[in-house]
Amino acid sequence: MEKYELQLFITGQTPPSQRAVSNLRSLCEHFLPGKYEITVIDVLENPQSAENERILATPTLIRIRPKPLRRIIGDLSETQKVMFALDLAPRQELTPTQENDK
Amino acid sequence: MSEVLATYPIEKIPTGIPGFDLISLGGLPKGRTTLIAGTAGSAKTVFAAQFLTEGISRHDEAGVFVTFEESPEDIRRNMKTLGWDIAKLEKSRKWIFVDAAPRVDDQAVETGEYDLGGLLARIEHAVKSVNATRVSMDSLGAIFNHLTATTLVRRELFRISTATKKMGVTAVMTSERSDEYGAIARFGVEEFVADNVVILRNPLEGEKRRRTIEVLKYRGTYHQKGEWPFTIVPGEGIVVIPLSAIELKQRSSNIRISSGVEELDRMCGGGFYRDSIILLSGATGTGKTLTVTHFIQGGVTNGERCLLFAFEESRDQIFRNAQGWGFDFEAMEDEGKLKVICEYPEVSGLEDHLIRMKDIIAEYQPNRVAIDSFSALERVSTIKGFREFVIGLTSFIKQSEVAGLFTATTPLMGGASVTETHISTITDSIILLRYVELFGEMRRGVTVLKMRGSKHDKDIREFTIDSGGMHIGKPFRNVGGILVGHPVQVDGAEIDRLGSLFQEDGR
Prior knowledge:
The complex is a heterodimer of chains A (102) and B (507).
Chain A: E1 4-10, H1 15-31, E2 36-42, H2 47-52, E3 60-65, E4 70-73, H3 79-85, H4 96-101
Parallel strand pairs in A: 1-2
Antiparallel strand pairs in A: 1-3, 3-4
Chain B: H1 2-6, E1 12-13, H2 20-23, E2 28-29, E3 33-38, H3 44-59, E4 63-67, H4 72-80, H5 86-91, E5 95-99, E6 108-110, H6 117-130, E7 134-138, H7 140-146, H8 150-167, E8 170-176, E9 196-201, E10 204-205, E11 208-209, E12 212-218, E13 227-233, E14 237-240, E15 256-257, H9 262-267, E16 272-273, E17 277-282, H10 288-301, E18 306-310, H11 315-324, H12 329-335, E19 338-342, H13 350-364, E20 368-372, H14 383-399, E21 403-409, H15 418-423, E22 429-438, E23 441-451, E24 461-466, E25 469-475, E26 479-480, E27 488-489, H16 492-501
Parallel strand pairs in B: 3-8, 3-9, 4-5, 4-7, 7-8, 17-21, 17-22, 18-19, 18-20, 20-21
Antiparallel strand pairs in B: 1-2, 9-12, 10-11, 12-13, 13-14, 15-16, 22-23, 23-24, 24-25, 26-27
Helix pairs in contact in B: 6-8, 13-14
């Protein structure tokens, strides 16, 4: 399985941002132990990178790898949705069309 | 005006958009956010972009353009047609885009609570990096389509509007509306940028689009009320036509100029006044164009520059007709004493005509302007639009202190046209040309109906037209009802009797 490369854009110490960081960490620890890399970027400190990635909402999670790019916004509290968007859900739950997408 | 405004705490910055600063009494409230609301195609993006370009070109103020809908590339291309080279402004660090337009690969899954902190950080970053004082955000509706949590987005946009206030920048946000005369904006955006609202309209009236702009509210400061027509001029952008903001400040002179017809001068008590507007009204074929030709000839003979706007005949026709009466327009043009502009009224809207005509007058600096026929322009406008046009043009001509001769075509046998209803009180002189039926023969009559500030001949005189032009002869003595178009022959003895009855009143 390819290593997960994730970028998380947050705004400083706001509650949703802090929640997103901890939600993402525990999710990865549970499903991808040792196979993930998270970069947390604070847009207040690094607005240019927010500009480059065209970030509107924070928190925004971008899955750089595996391809294709995926964007997930919000505090990542809806675990099922996050897993689904990151393709962490058990394979049998995928519909045939999503299978073809891969 | 500026002294009055200075006593109010809310300062305004001039936008530089022609006419807008007049109707808004100084521009946009400084350091605040103004909502620009309008239906699709009402020029919201143009307003937003022009707010920045005028700031750069007139006041050297840098601007940030936040686009939620079109890509920066589209905006650069679209605005190029208006003469704005945005790429060049970007290179000189006067204009910076914050690209918040959705792209296919940006499609995001929403999982829980979020805010627009990323966008705000980018705007702040952009403002700092070019030291901007103006921010345009276009258009808010797109962000609501992009993100699903509308309550949250509304709250966040309010936060952005507050933040721009803190940054000390003056901002405009554009937003869609669904009806020309309905709710201010969709998605309830007016609830968070409620301080200042400007509405752009583009309603369909009698098969014609007529653009208007209205300052709906400016919290804590003054503005002119109501809708004002505007148009979009290539190379300039939005040009608002501030009709009643025009001041009645034209001077009035006692200098007389010749109408080109000696007898007509005499009827007017010594010629037209130099800076007056003369309305020439008559049915088709009564000699309006001929009178205009005389008017031009009179000017050129006197060494004046003349300008003719022709809306009914082509250049060739006009020159040939003039030739037929013994006037050489070609030679006059070669001398630089005459400029003839021929156009069908239908080529553009009335607002565009007005702006073009003003430009030509300002550039050519004529002493005399003739418009033949003025009433042809009625065709391309609503009645309201025409009235605004008449006021706008006449006041401009009066301010330029030139003599204006406008012709109006009336029904064949007399009566008034729409043009006359709107223009007659504005004009200084009115001359009527009428058909007169006399003993089974058609004759032509001329009379001076109104001559502001001067005595004039009250007779209705007969005139003839031949290869030498117009010849005014004796008054019709035994005909009544000419003006209303029902000439009735009156017995000569009866006239003498009536005349003797009123001898005391000084006639």
